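Subject: complex prediction, re-run

Hi both,

The earlier run crashed halfway through, so I resubmitted it with identical inputs.
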Amino acid sequence: MQEADLVEARRIFRMAFGTFLGVPDPESFAADREYIFTRWRANPEAALVAEVNGTVAGSNFATNWGSFGFFGPLTVRPDLWNQHIAQKLLGPTMDLYAQWGVREAGLYTFAQSPKHIGLYQKFGFWPRFLTAIMSKGVIGRETSSIKYSALNEGERDQALRACRELTGSIYDGLNVTCEIRMVKDQNLGETVLLWGGDRLDAFAVCHGGEGSEAGRNNCYVKVAAVRPGPGAEDRFEHLLDAGEALATERGWQRIVAGVNLARSQAYRQLLRRGFRTDIQGVAMQKPDSPAYNRPDVFVLDDWR
Ligand SMILES: CC(C)(COP(=O)(O)OP(=O)(O)OC[C@H]1O[C@@H](n2cnc3c(N)ncnc32)[C@H](O)[C@@H]1OP(=O)(O)O)[C@@H](O)C(=O)NCCC(=O)NCCS
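This time it finished cleanly. Structure:
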């Protein structure tokens, strides 16, 4: 994808989802949220475009989380659906994973759509657990978290190393630090860090407001992770407090977070805290194995 493709890729993204979901004015879909420009800026090499007669017909974005990869938003111009264009984008997406040395990959899609499930199955993805996109109204909380944006350069490097080490202890090689850098570099929100002495206990990468993946008045937890082992539940609760404290400070009224339902302890804790599901989709995984979707894993993400 080139910079010159961005406007049309975003128009197609809105029109494709708006059409599929039956939005009366499809191009207004997710008008207060941004995925296309921001993901391209973060990693243009991972942004793919399909062209028909020299014009943009669709696009896809691959994400590199170290040993794990996911992709999306994948969209094709509605008048060109069912002409194998998505498959032309998915082949090179799989090539990127091979190039990056991704061990397992996943995606989030519409559980009710045989087309979506069938399309991704062709590329070796298998439907597994549901993923719930949940939210609650923000309640002011008292916490003492560290904000990534407030750190100096040396401290940032240390924080990124600690985040990588933490996620690696959940799933070998899992590394989501590109999300922390993206939020910082493009001013999309904030990353909060909870330290327990000199060990990182937990962190949450949050998008906030219009022009990010959160949308107006929202705080969206793009990815959050808690150090596993005894006390993980308490650390998770503190992290959620820190997220709500950040949202209060910034005037974001709802906190939105996704969780795979195979992470059953985290899911139940969100329910107890008052989160309710707004949307649910299915996680498809390649190969057909859990990766880090396990009952004792306190990770928030949804692979969108
Ligand atoms: C989903 C989307 C990207 C697919 O793009 P597309 O170019 O129409 O897809 P393709 O033509 O490459 O592939 C369609 C495949 O769906 C599968 N399919 C369709 N109906 C199916 C069914 N009932 N059962 C099983 N598989 C089915 C087939 O494998 C078909 O390919 P084939 O004809 O070669 O066998 C496009 O419809 C879109 O933009 N939708 C709105 C946005 C969206 O939902 N994005 C994905 C979110 S996860």
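The CA atoms of residues 19 and 118 lie 20 Å apart.

- K.
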